[in-house]
Amino acid sequence: MSPVLPIPVVQVLQVVTIAAVAPGVSGVMARVEARLQGRTGPRVLQPYSDLRKLFRKEALAPEGASWVFLAAPLAAMTCYLTVPLLIPVLTTFGLPLGYMGDILGGGFILSLASFLIAVAALETGSPYAQLGASRAKTFSAITEPVILFVVFTVALVTGTDLPYALAATVRSSAGQIVRPAHVLAAAALFMVILYETGRIPVETHSGTNEFGMIEEARPFEHSGPYFALLKWGSAMKQLILYTILINVFVAPWGLASTAQAGSVVLAIVALVAKAVALGVVVAVIDNSFAKLRLFKITEFVSAAFLLAVLGVFTLYLGGG
Amino acid sequence: MAGAAAVAAPSVFSGTANVIAVGVLLVEFGMFRQALLRGQVRLYAAQSTLISVLAVVVAAARHLPDLYVLAGLSFALKVVIVPVVLRRLLRGLGARGEGPGWTDIAGSGSLSLATTVLVAIVLAAFGFFSVAALGIHSPVLPTTALAVSVAVVLVAFVLMIMRRDVASQAIGFFSLENGVSLTALVVAAGLPLILEIVFLFDLLVAVVVFGLLIRVHHGRAESLSTADLTRLRG
């Protein structure tokens, strides 16, 4: 029998896992993407080296930018460190701080981070950063209804909107997995995640073409440790969203049901494996589709909205 | 952990039936976006495949061996023969006189895609709520699949109304028939086989008639669009 970890340690481990693994998952995805395109691609550990390099560099702020410009990366990072407390990262049972907020609460904290970064981008006075901020806010306003309908679906399925409750419901029987409401909500959430993480078909993740940029344009003016925090934060946001999709909707298996050290370690390994698998799927999608024109993004979002709304409809008749 | 207000999951049979029915509806929505005639025909074939799969599921769940025959027949007819016939009839109608493959029918919608989808969602909602208002409850009937089939029919109407090219209108009509087959499978799985087969061959006749109409229209108007048909306008 492995020793039982104290609950607060497990709680901290949830945050540490997300923070430590996130750049690695981005690295694997960049590598897979490159291989699919016939390039050798960067090393898997490249994002860590990038972060280390950036943390050593000097930080500059544009002339006239106020304290908000420098505070925003720190505040956004704080938000990204808070969300892993609310979602099932490693355990099937709710940890003490896990009931601080529901799915909506987690969503609010993530949008707060995105809002702060947008405000910092507006501070710079740089046209590209401002363009990115304005686009990001415009499109997040139209993805918001999709997220709401996904939450409605979860609420109708479980009677609550705690992520732990939905994960437990999905684990409870095979019927819960094939029910259309669940499939539709998961698919809609996946599309929102593609948007939120700036992936094709919405945005070229690694491109330098300013015209198509949304999320990627916002940290244009940041440099040094602040830029490192933003990059790290966006990798963490990606892994947080993946974790929500995997551990709440699609595959909530492999989580630790007790606080024993062995099962917690196993849960970390399982999370990494599942996140990498999802990352590979996203990388394949990245390589199989063309980027949508900016004004076609509404079509992508309307498809996600359709899925989420149908999920609620099917539940309404009791057959979802 | 689930609260008391939670909606219970359906049985595996009705869950599967509902998922397939929702798949049929989603393919119907996919037709709004499809830009190539070839792709439109392929979507129709995919939708018909889903119907055949549903027939197999219903046959297995209700122990109706007739339905296996129907599934095979409907697969042969709707997934193989109808698309082949359609492609043959539409050959040479492309802008460059090529096969139907690259005939561009995009942009024939009278509203933007996102708006069309929203309109269709509203109509689908009407279908859902009207079936709910009927208050049909039966342990063997997957109510959601029934509601979805009504929604498929309504959305097929939206496709026929919104797209201004004859090919999409014809395929909208055929997929409407798919919606009706879905209803038949869900509500009256025990329908005599001969009737089902008659319906299927009815469809084949419709395909030939529509194909000829499309050719005649193309011969007169030199395009697949119906936007030029204004001679009788007052």
Q: What are the main properties of this structure?
A:
heterodimer; A: 320 residues; mainly alpha; 0% strand; globular; B: 234 residues; 71% helix
Number of helices of chain B: 7
Beta-strand proportion of chain B: under 5%
Q: Can you give the mean pLDDT of chain B?
A: 82
The rough form of chain A would be described as globular
Q: State the helix count of chain A.
A: 11
Apparent shape of chain B: globular
- Main β-sheet of chain B, in a few words? none
Order of helices and strands of chain B: HHHHHHH
Number of domains in the coordinates of chain B? 1
Q: Mean pLDDT of chain A, nearest integer? A: 87
Radius of gyration of chain B: 19 Å
The total count of strands of chain A amounts to: 0
| Helix share bin of chain A | 55-70%
Helix content of chain B: over 70%
- Biggest sheet of chain A: strands, sense, closure? none
Radius of gyration of chain A, in Å, reads 19 Å
Brief rundown of the structure:
Chain A has 320 residues and is mainly α. Chain A has eleven helices and no strands. Chain B contains seven helices and no strands.
Q: What are the SSEs and their pairings?
A:
The complex is a heterodimer of chains A (320) and B (234).
Chain A: H1 7-36, H2 46-56, H3 67-82, H4 103-124, H5 127-158, H6 163-172, H7 174-178, H8 180-196, H9 224-250, H10 261-288, H11 297-316
Chain B: H1 12-33, H2 37-62, H3 65-89, H4 113-134, H5 143-162, H6 166-187, H7 193-221
Provide an overview of this structure.
The complex is a heterodimer of chains A (320) and B (234). With 320 residues, chain A is mainly alpha-helical. Chain A has one domain (7-141, 202-292). Chain A has helices at 7-36, 46-56, 67-82, 103-124, 127-158, 163-172, 174-178, 180-196, 224-250, 261-288, 297-316. In chain A, helix 2 runs antiparallel to helix 9 (224-250), helix 4 (103-124) packs antiparallel against helix 5 and helix 8 (180-196) packs antiparallel against helix 9. The longest helix of chain A is centred in the middle third of the chain and has 32 residues, at 127-158. Chain A is globular, with a radius of gyration of 19 Å. The mean pLDDT of chain A is 87. Chain B has one domain (12-220).
